[in-house]
Design a protein that fits this description.
By secondary structure, the protein is α/β, with parallel strands linked by helices. It has two domains: about 240 residues, Alpha/Beta hydrolase fold, catalytic domain (Rossmann fold), CATH 3.40.50.1820; about 140 residues, no CATH class. About 35% of the residues lie in helices and about 15% in strands. It has twelve helices and nine strands. α3 crosses α4, α4 crosses α11 and α6 packs antiparallel against α8.
Amino acid sequence: MKIKILTLALISLTLVQCHSTQQVQGDLKNQIIELFPGATVEAIAYEEPYQEAYLVVIPQYLDHNNPDLGTFDQRIYLYHVDYEAPIHLETGGYDVYLAEREISKNLGLNLILVEYRFYGNSRPEEIPWEYLTNDQAIEDYHRLNQAFRNIYKTGKWLTSGISKGGETAMIYKSKYPKDADVVVPYVAPIILDTADVRPWEHVNRVGTSKCRQKVKSLQKRLLQNKEDVLGLMMEKTNEDSLTFEIGHEVALEYAILEYPFSFWQWNGDCGQIPDEKATLDSAFHHLNGVSGVSNFSDQSYDGGLPSYYQHMRELGYYVMDTTDLSEWLSQQRYSHRVFAPKGVELTYNDSYMSVVKDYVENQGERMIWIYGGLDPWGGCAVEPKGQSTMKFVKPDGTHSTRIKDLKPAQQQQIYDSLRVWLGI
């Protein structure tokens, strides 16, 4: 495991007063290095409205309660606009993807993207599972927030996150309410069980009954012709050099059971579902494009371990729905737990997210939720009660729904509120 042992007994975060926006380029880089001794800071490409941008790799504490245990390398991307502008911190739930963020671009905010601990390039060779907790991740974000306040001394803070990152943003708000002046969780569920039924209850309500029946009919057809479909699957997976420890048949069954969830989560276009006249090959091709069998391969297994570990321990997940399909399945029980790491403690903390839910719904302030109406995770959406909170649902929206996808009047309402709350 590549873990660096701390040698400094005390790290000072004291900096000279921030300069104006006329500071020479490179001064920001030096300030970051002073904030995080041992960090590497590399200039990266950027576009307007940003003036500088850096990839920062910091020695992050494995255990914030015991810094002497050592560190791991955590990646941060900083896009700088102005020392006096508000700061947009995105609490990513996985590895970082570099793309435009609508809020920071439209409002001219400084942007900080943080890769979640033990994901992507912030993952040690061997994961110390006991430190992959939401509380430890929140301490990562809190440490960064407090440190960067030595550079950005006047601007207010906005935290956002997408999906699991949105869950993280809500957890962060519940733990450190004063770290962010505004929070915007996108398509973020609060799941309350490792076999939560609410997403499937949502699936059974969305779209039209005709479309939902078309989804079920495709599942049945694929299972009823399982041997032929397995042949098609073998051809495809051999081409891609994929292997399956759980077996090709079980992997195919997981893909078929997953299909309705993935279809409504990302697509929702009933016209794309092959009807009974379509060839079996086209039916399998459609399945593979929606809930790919590769997701259940050994090659995908390692990358998904951190996520499934967190879902089985604290975040929860959804049940696998086998309604009207059991007679064609090879197993009696299907659970995402099979994709979690082996030989580690997986006891679920069933109160963790309930506490977060209670806080954001009843005590959350200046929070804006964005959801897609077709997205199964909408079954686990929050119901905010605060006067300074808002919830927007795009009826035909999926898990990719963003502010830009809402009605113009709703977009205006959101950005007007953000400007007021951020003092712009």
